[in-house]
Amino acid sequence: MTSGRTLMLIDGLDTEAVDGDWLPVYAPATGELLAEVPRGGRADIAAATGAALAAFDGWRRTSPAARGRLLTQIGDGLRAVKEEIAVELARETGNAIRLQSRPEVQSAIDLLHYFGGTATELKGETVPLGAGLLNFTTREPFGVVGAMTPWNAPVQLSVVKVAAALATGNTVVIKVSEEAPLAVLAVARIFNRHLPPGVLNVVTGLGDEAGAALLAEPRIAKLSFTGSTAIGRMVMASAADRVVPVSLELGGKSPSIVFPDADTDATADGVIASMRFPRQGQSCTAGSRLFVHESIYDSFLARVTAKAALLVVGDPLDEKTDIGSIINARQFARVDRYVRGAIELGAEALTGGSRWPGSDQGFFYTPTVLTGVDPGWAAAREEIFGPVQVAIPWHTEDEVVALANDSPYGLAGYVWSHDIDAALRTAARIDAGWVQVNRGLGQLPGLSYGGIKASGIGQEFSIEGALDAFTHRKTTTVAFRA
Ligand code: NAD
């Protein structure tokens, strides 16, 4: 367990903020002060960027195979302390260790091994331009990548960016979320044991201080952001000001469409997993708009609510717990506001709808399924980022596709049917970056993941996504005597 002060990592060294200020990190489930981290600002971002820039030339000249080997070794190093990191992560995020934190660390290990193994896939092309001309392309790193990540799955979402950026020859300054920086800092120390100083720099601090400084830092060559759509817009505006490329993984309000043949327990389990109830619904890919065919609406919702009601809410570190604590008081109040607002307009909570009974501390919310919701209401349109699913009946495929696509977001989608024609037809018509048929689980290394519309730009989790996000295609044209 962490206690006292945990330093950030700049140029291979444990570092305090230049200003000497600190930020507290609390355990959401208990309110306990876990540690203080440096309150980084402009000077710290400048120091981290200078270190990353100094390390860039050596790192880009390191062979892709050698870079890949180092990432694989970092993955092995993380695997050796997996349980320790999972406990730290569960404590600071409030996420249940069995269903969320331990699998999240495993995902980070898998990502390091995946990018370690694919780092050599930086292939270019040759283009025939006629006799006497050799024209070829190479994939070049941008330089220093400025990354920013949120608190909901901080280790996985930080590692996916860092591993992809490093595999492709960039160096990194990452500003991690002030809500949950400790496990990422612990993972960064494993990186640091294997990498030259300055290749990875981790700055802690507030969004409008360290985050804003990162956006304004002129030596950052590429911005890569995961977080809310509101802040994503600011990131894009900063990128536009400086004309640097930007990748954005933003919010979602993803549809989950259940066909008449899918009135089964297996689908109900899948719908609960896709809603990410075991992460308190704090997931960008949550299938939070549940469209159920009218012919099975009551029976299927009975299955879902019966299963949701069995989920155990409580201490994130208890192996029996399915659902932990919401991250903080502000987010808890926001979730409850959406639920109260919908109920005042006439919605009914089939299950949940309030604080978990008997929890006088922490931010424990009962998994909630709302019915009687108009698709135009805020609860059905806006990202709640909490354990709240709205259920809406549908009649025809055309109608449900229109409802599904009537959203500013386009991150994920779920289709539940074993009628292969209906399932594939519907999957093809959903406007989203990632559609799953009869599966409600998270990303796997190798699949390209990312949103469209207000859910973002670019893709992660695959080497193709990494090449698009973290390299540019450079053309070299050579004339020779043919
Ligand atoms: P957030 O946008 O508030 O914060 C994300 C990061 O940006 C944090 O590091 C934060 O400190 C920083 N930041 C905040 N204000 C800033 C500012 N003014 N200038 C610069 N940086 C600033 O998001 P959050 O609350 O941490 O996370 C929840 C959001 O993230 C949800 O909207 C969720 O959908 C989204 N998310 C998206 C994905 C995805 O892959 N698409 C994954 C996880 C979370």
Topology:
Blueprint: E1 8-10, E2 13-15, E3 22-26, E4 33-38, H1 42-61, H2 64-80, H3 82-93, H4 97-118, E5 133-141, E6 144-148, H5 154-167, E7 171-175, H6 182-194, E8 200-203, H7 207-216, E9 222-226, H8 229-242, E10 246-249, E11 255-258, H9 265-274, E12 289-293, H10 297-310, H11 329-344, E13 348-351, E14 368-371, H12 378-381, E15 388-394, H13 397-405, E16 409-410, E17 412-416, H14 420-429, E18 434-437, E19 452-453, E20 456-457, H15 463-470, E21 471-479
Parallel strand pairs: 6-7, 6-9, 7-8, 9-10, 11-12, 11-17, 12-15, 14-15, 17-18
Antiparallel strand pairs: 1-2, 3-4, 5-21, 10-20, 13-14, 16-19
Bound molecules: nicotinamide-adenine-dinucleotide (NAD).
Nicotinamide-adenine-dinucleotide is lined by residues 148-152, 157, 175, 177-178, 207-208, 211-212, 215, 226-228, 231, 234, 249-252, 284, 383, 385, 411, 451, 456.
The CATH topology label of the largest domain is Aldehyde Dehydrogenase, Chain A, domain 1
Task: Report the end-to-end length measured between terminal Cα atoms.
Answer: 68 Å
What ligands does this structure carry? nicotinamide-adenine-dinucleotide
**In CATH, what is the homologous superfamily of the largest domain?**
Aldehyde Dehydrogenase, Chain A, domain 1
Query: pLDDT below 50 for ≥5 consecutive residues: which ranges?
Result: none
Approximate strand percentage: 15-25%
Query: How many beta-strand segments?
Result: 21
Biggest beta-sheet profile: 7 strands, mixed
What is the rounded Rg?
23 Å
Write down the domain tally: 2
Protein name: Aldehyde dehydrogenase
Family: Belongs to the aldehyde dehydrogenase family.
Keywords: Oxidoreductase
GO molecular function: oxidoreductase activity, acting on the aldehyde or oxo group of donors, NAD or NADP as acceptor
